User: Which sequence fits this backbone?
């Protein structure tokens, strides 16, 4: 996060390098996800995860299917809400490639989507720690420095 010099607003964007767009990586994500037990579902969110090396950048794919939401403006709104929740909670996101899928037939309120996404990410964090045998470091969010 950087502080904008013109205003006192903190710039906390989700960088383009963290958005998954490569067809090859997406195929790898779904092929390996079937073999690993790192899937988690909490209505209306389903997450598929794939472990990556420490030196690689974790990337995320946001999926809102036309099968569930027919109207494009609804799909775009839900995609923006999911991205915002994911961006606001960067500190709890696992270091892996993720595919976040929205599975509800209606546009749900921000708080409902946020609760479901955070619970699902907690499940993923636990499963990744279990499969890799490594514990996830505790992060202290009350101060400006991150303690590992």
Assistant:
């Amino acid at each position: 996060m950087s502080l904008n010099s013109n205003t006192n607003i903190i710039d906390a964007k989700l960088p383009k390098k963290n958005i998954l767009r490569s067809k090859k990586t997406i195929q790898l994500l779904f092929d390996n996800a079937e073999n690993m037990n790192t899937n988690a579902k909490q209505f209306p969110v389903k997450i598929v995860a794939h472990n990556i090396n420490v030196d690689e950048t974790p990337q995320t794919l946001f999926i809102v299917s036309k099968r569930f939401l027919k109207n494009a403006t609804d799909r775009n709104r839900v995609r923006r809400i999911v991205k915002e929740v994911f961006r606001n909670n960067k500190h709890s996101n696992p270091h892996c490639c993720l595919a976040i899928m929205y599975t509800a037939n209606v546009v749900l309120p921000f708080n409902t989507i946020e609760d479901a996404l955070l619970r699902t990410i907690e499940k993923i964090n636990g499963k990744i720690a279990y499969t890799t045998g490594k514990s996830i470091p505790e992060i202290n969010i009350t101060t400006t420095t991150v303690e590992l």
User: Anything to note?
Assistant: The chain is about 35% helix and 20% strand. Helices lie at 23-35, 72-88, 110-132.
